[in-house]
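Long-time lurker. I teach an intro course on protein structure, and each term I like to show students one example going from raw sequence to a predicted 3D structure in token notation. This year I'd like something fresh instead of my usual example. Would anyone be willing to generate the tokens for the chain below so I can use it in lecture? Attribution to the forum is fine with me.
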Amino acid sequence: MSLYAIGDLHLHFDSELKAPGQLTGRVWQDHERIFQENCASLIREEDTLVLVGDHSWGKKLSECGKDLDYIAALPGRKILLRGNHDMFWDVKKTEKLNALYEGRLFFLQNNYYAYEDYALVGTKGYTFEGPFYLDRYGHVAGWDEAEAAHAEKLVAREADRLQISFEAARRDGYRKFIMFLHYPPTNVLQRNSVFTKMAEAYGASQVIYGHCHGESRFHDSIRGKKRGIRYSLVSGDCLRWHPMKVLD
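-- Reply from a regular --
Happy to contribute to a lecture. Here you go:
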């Protein structure tokens, strides 16, 4: 039994891309078929696959049916995290989604998923992505203060939600954690954040995230080991549609 992760499928079988010019590079051509074939050759029915958000471009559940059916048909158990484009998923309706897709998909929000002696915890997360203002040398010289203040409110809300997930697992006796986010845990100017500090406080062994597309964005946040925690970016285009093995 193995645990895998990937994110940012951006499916739209029953909906249109919000921005038609997005995600049109070569790596995105026929990515649904390529990913499906990679999963079929790699993942067994006893394995678990965590998808870290941006599953569908559908704005409501009725526009996401085929996208979620596509995910449900992949081999193994499927755990879904909210992404910034997952408009169909209202946090307050997570229990209803879990009831609707019981036995097919598990929606990870304000709860946790038990994997062997680990608790899988997670939330969408958030990080300030600009606008940043550059000097003539291309270095960041400032940023939009109003947008940064708004981002801090969203970060605090998501941190609260993540703590709910950690505490639910800890009350049930779990002491080993793997933490999942959609947004990266830090932005391009940060070395630490409330999310890295929470991972350290609860003793998470790994932090896994998505959201960053295109090679110029793949190093926007932490990758590799830092303070004993392994950080991994698993956006689909970064992984070339091969799910990353998290645990054997």
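Some talking points for your students: The CA atoms of residues 73 and 235 lie 20 Å apart. The chain has a mean pLDDT of 93.
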